[in-house]
């Protein structure tokens, strides 16, 4: 039973709003801070749930608190016969954005994401946890000034791989049930071997290939039972070498997969080495660290088309449903696909479900909810600020050099690459600007509320 519209207050501080998502654990609502009017996400789980996990997830978030890209838990407790978790409101998931971009990301976008994804996983591992469900749905972009930041969510399946007191690694075990999402699960997970850090990284490798190719070879496998399907997926993964999986991609993806697959159960991965693989490729390709992702360009194109030709039909918006302006927080895959109406790129396989063949026309901004329009405007404003800053820096350089704009010296490709590599030192795991804006101002989190402190 939905609690929407009942005027429920959470911890005497937050007002429960519209329902924006659901899953096996419970439901997610849009919330609002009564004092500051700030929007938050409210995750609710019945106290009579067969397998309650929200309190455990809240404790994991507490352990991870303070990490870059880890949502801040503002309150945890019980209200209206539900376990309630109030946390930062985030933007669309990687899967949402992937569909929005016609199920294919450019190499530049994949490499920008790879650096942040590796840093998120490394941070979680540094706190003694493995995630065990690495997939695009569990990585969400931030909003407003943190719009360029990748956030990691859904720690209901997370597990300690190291004892916090003795610092001993958990023992090697076999005959374990499959935990996580079969599409991205490691081969060892399919084989029933206890998961460790290597398995999170193997899953991340499959995500990167998925983003580059639009699909994975084991998608769309049909079987009579789940067990039979999982066995077929495992067989396909086992016979698909890294070279075959990454055919047509840069060698760095092959090196990455071969490295993580070669790790022993309790080995500590060399995260810096893996990040450097992709950073070096980024520089060699001549890309710029401007944080202009594929979806940024696509949104700009849609906005321009809407302004120049209001009657021209455009591709469906990222959030086609005004009832779910923040459905990227956490939505079941079928509901998300139905809302988005996005079609895969030509020739791309679907994820085992038939996607709708009718695109929803998006003509003007009136079709979007106010919240969604604001978020798209934030992305646009952020990009424009970045461009103005770059232009201002260029003008200052010319003025200091006594050159007219037409006389500005042209940099060679090698000089540009060297300058980019200096801007992104390999030994700094969290050196992305994370959409703080030209002033460098970072949003301050509010003081943790009373009640049960998390």
Automatic annotation (TrEMBL):
Location of the region described as Disordered in the Swiss-Prot/TrEMBL record: 344-372, 400-454
Annotated InterPro entries: CK1_Ser-Thr_kinase, Kinase-like_dom_sf, Prot_kinase_dom, Protein_kinase_ATP_BS, Ser/Thr_kinase_AS
Keyword entries, A-Z: ATP-binding, Kinase, Nucleotide-binding, Serine/threonine-protein kinase, Transferase
Ligand binding (ATP): 43
Superkingdom per UniProt: Eukaryota
Domain called Protein kinase: residue spans: 14-283
Residue spans of biased composition, Low complexity class: 400-423
Molecular function in Gene Ontology: ATP binding; protein serine/threonine kinase activity
Recorded catalytic activity of this chain's protein: L-threonyl-[protein] + ATP = O-phospho-L-threonyl-[protein] + ADP + H(+); L-seryl-[protein] + ATP = O-phospho-L-seryl-[protein] + ADP + H(+)
Pfam families from the UniProt entry: Pkinase
Enzyme Commission number: 2.7.11.1
Similarity comment: Belongs to the protein kinase superfamily. CK1 Ser/Thr protein kinase family. Casein kinase I subfamily.
Protein name per Swiss-Prot or TrEMBL: non-specific serine/threonine protein kinase
Taxonomic path: Eukaryota, Fungi, Fungi incertae sedis, Mucoromycota, Mucoromycotina
């Amino acid at each position: 039973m939905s609690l929407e519209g009942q005027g429920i207050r959470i911890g005497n501080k937050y007002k429960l709003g519209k329902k924006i998502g659901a899953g096996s654990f419970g439901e997610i609502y849009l919330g609002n801070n009564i004092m500051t009017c700030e929007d938050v996400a409210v995750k609710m789980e019945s106290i009579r749930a067969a397998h309650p996990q929200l309190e455990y997830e809240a404790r994991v978030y507490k352990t991870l608190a303070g990490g870059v890209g880890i949502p801040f838990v503002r309150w945890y407790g019980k209200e209206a016969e539900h376990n309630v978790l109030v946390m930062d409101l985030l933007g669309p998931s990687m899967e949402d954005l992937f569909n929005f971009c016609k199920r294919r990301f450019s190499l530049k976008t994949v490499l920008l994401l790879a650096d942040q994804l590796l840093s998120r996983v490394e941070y979680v591992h540094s706190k003694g946890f493995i995630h065990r469900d690495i997939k695009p749905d569990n990585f969400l972009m931030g909003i407003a000034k943190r719009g360029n930041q990748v956030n990691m969510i859904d720690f209901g399946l997370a597990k300690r791989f190291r004892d916090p007191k003795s610092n001993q690694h958990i023992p090697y075990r076999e005959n374990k049930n499959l935990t996580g999402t079969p599409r991205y699960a490691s081969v060892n997970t399919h084989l029933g071997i206890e998961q460790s850090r290597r398995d999170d990284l193997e899953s991340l490798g499959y995500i990167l290939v998925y983003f580059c190719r639009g699909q994975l070879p084991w998608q769309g496998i049909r079987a009579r039972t789940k067990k039979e399907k999982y066995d077929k997926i495992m067989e396909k993964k086992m016979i698909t070498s890294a070279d075959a999986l990454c055919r047509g991609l840069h060698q760095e993806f092959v090196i990455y997969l071969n490295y993580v697959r070669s790790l022993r159960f309790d080995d500590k991965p060399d995260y810096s080495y893996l990040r450097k693989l992709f950073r070096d490729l980024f520089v060699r390709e001549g890309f710029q660290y401007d944080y202009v992702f594929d979806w940024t360009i696509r949104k700009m194109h849609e906005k321009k088309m809407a302004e120049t030709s209001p009657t021209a039909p455009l591709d469906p918006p990222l959030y086609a449903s005004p009832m779910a302006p923040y459905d990227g927080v956490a939505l079941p895959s079928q509901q998300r696909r139905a809302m988005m109406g996005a079609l895969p790129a030509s020739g791309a396989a679907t994820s085992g479900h038939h996607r709708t063949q009718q695109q929803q026309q998006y003509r003007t901004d009136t079709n979007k909810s106010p919240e969604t329009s604001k978020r798209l405007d934030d992305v646009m404003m952020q990009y424009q600020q970045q461009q103005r800053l770059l232009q201002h820096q260029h003008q200052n350089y010319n003025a200091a050099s006594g050159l007219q704009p037409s006389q500005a010296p042209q940099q060679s490709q090698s000089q540009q690459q060297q300058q980019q590599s200096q801007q992104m030192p390999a030994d700094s795991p969290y050196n992305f600007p994370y959409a703080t804006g030209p002033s460098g101002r970072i949003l301050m989190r509010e003081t943790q509320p009373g009640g049960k402190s998390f």
